[in-house]
Amino acid sequence: MGKLTRRGLLLGGGAVAGYWAGRGWAPGLAPRNGIATLGGEAAGPTLLNDASLLSATPIHSHIRPAARGEALVGVFRAELAAARAAGRPVNVGAARHSMGGQAIPRDGHAITVDDAWIDPDPVTQTYRVNGGARWSQVIAALDAIGFSPAVMQSNHDFGVAATFSVNAHGWPVPYGPMGATVRSLRMVLPDGSLVTASRTENADLFRLAMGGYGLIGLIVDMELDMVPNQRLAPSFAVMPAADFPAAFLQAVNDPGIPMAYGRLNVARGSLFQEAMLVTYSPTADQSDLPAATGSGLTAHLASYIYRAQVGREALKDLRWWVESGLYPRLAGESTRNSLMNEPVVTLDDRNPSRVDILHEYFVPPAAFDGFLEVCREVIPDAFVEFLNVTLRYVGADPDSVLAHSPSPRIAAVMSFTQEMTRRAEADHRRMTQALIERIVALGGTYYLPYRPHATEAQFRAAYPRAGEFAAAKRALDPALTLRNNLWDTYLERS
To answer: One MF term from GO for this chain (predicted)?
Structure first.
């Protein structure tokens, strides 16, 4: 735990006071007596779950090889051969932070690679990395030599190859998805052959694997871009939500701003009326950069007020005041690596009867006003509790066949919390379908790693090249050895 700072005392004291003051009183939540429950931790060695706790799925086996290079190739080939012989599927995962079985092979062979080989080259400003390495391990290795991942997923728990496979992005600007920073990769195809893929070699396989959810091949290792680590100072600007796109794009296009994101207020009565733009710029002094730190005391204490919002609209207003009014007066400098060195557990739910569910929508900047209107009309009536939205920039993705951002987008990453009950799941599905229907009509898309609530028609409308992807996958993998719930639910009939 970090030192107790003035910022930690102020934010943490208010957070803990708010949390304990309302801990047993949540007038916005309906009683749960007699309501049918859902989900929970997977029980037994033949079940595998993901971050939703709603995806417990039977599997044949789950191995965790601590292997790299040719040894890992051998492990992959052996699992593929055994699965093909028995007619079972295979899937590789890392943190399995997806929320709809996208990294789980039903009745099949699950693989989690536990190895973190990282080989940076300061001359070319690239690094080679084992596919199973976590971003926390990458940061530790690069930080020691003064470098930083060009783009990584927003939390450091996730696997590098998994980030590429789900086409995830980060918040450094003006990049597209993390795959935009991948130079090349090696993967084992369903027939056991080892290939190298890049934008110039086996480019068709590269485009299919980027955002291909592990359905094309099992990634052995990758070569990615890295950039110099920097000491950065934050700036904050609060504005009407309608003014955010112009201010955000101006920041993104400023070469002196390497990191930027936004927030919107989430209280039902004033939903999405205000926005905050946060930008980071290099300081004049870039000497003697401190080692990357993890979550500080402030982040851990502030998580209490984050949780105290559930069922308490007044505390959502309080949190917005803390974030947009108090915190900007207290925030200080940080290194690029420290800003990205954040685990998911910082905002972990402490209530075993509820679960956090993420949404993400990729909105053309010109359609942002329409997006705000859709959310104001759909979200307040939902049974789920809306906790947070973070706005990030995603540059155009010309590579992935299943691209969520074929043109520049504002990505709205939303966090909801729901009861683990049938009524909550049913209403969440209703709300999600309503959002997707209208956001796709605006020219936007939705992100695929979360709850499989979209209809098949909505999936095809958001991802018009899905049929092309499915046909290429069948040609490459006629036995459909690489499978998961994304394939079973949406792509099998494409």
So the answer is: FAD binding
